[in-house]
């Protein structure tokens, strides 16, 4: 039997410039390792009208 597991983690970032790219790539593996999950999906959501995600 499989069980569904979910984890939610908020990462707060502060920019120092009006226009800035902040690389969060290193944060994602650390959060996944902390969760103990080995398989699944990662959903990254950026809140705010002036925020964008680059893949």
Describe the structure.
The chain has 55 residues and is mainly alpha-helical. The chain has one domain (1-55). It is built from one helix and no strands. It has one helix at 27-35. The longest helix is centred in the middle third of the chain and has 9 residues, at 27-35. The chain is elongated and about 50 Å long. The N and C termini lie far apart (34 Å). The model has no long low-confidence stretch (mean pLDDT 81).
Brief summary of the model shown:
This protein has 55 residues and is mostly helical. It is built from one helix and no strands.
Low-confidence stretches: none
Q: How confident overall, as mean pLDDT? A: 81
Number of helices: 1
Rg, please? 14 Å
Spell out the helices and strands N to C. H
How many distinct beta strands?
0
Measured as a percent range, the helix fraction is: 10-25%
The SS-based structural class is mainly alpha
**How far is it from the N-terminal to the C-terminal residue, by CA?**
34 Å
Strand content: under 5%
Shape: elongated
How many discrete structural domains? Answer: 1
Write the layout of secondary structure elements.
Elements: H1 27-35
What are the defining features of this structure?
mainly alpha, 55 residues
């Amino acid at each position: 039997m499989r069980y569904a597991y979910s984890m939610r983690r908020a990462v707060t970032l502060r920019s120092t410039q009006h226009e800035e790219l902040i690389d969060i790539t290193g944060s994602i593996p650390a959060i996944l390792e902390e969760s103990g999950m080995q398989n699944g999906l990662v959903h990254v959501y950026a809140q705010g009208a002036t925020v964008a995600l680059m893949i």
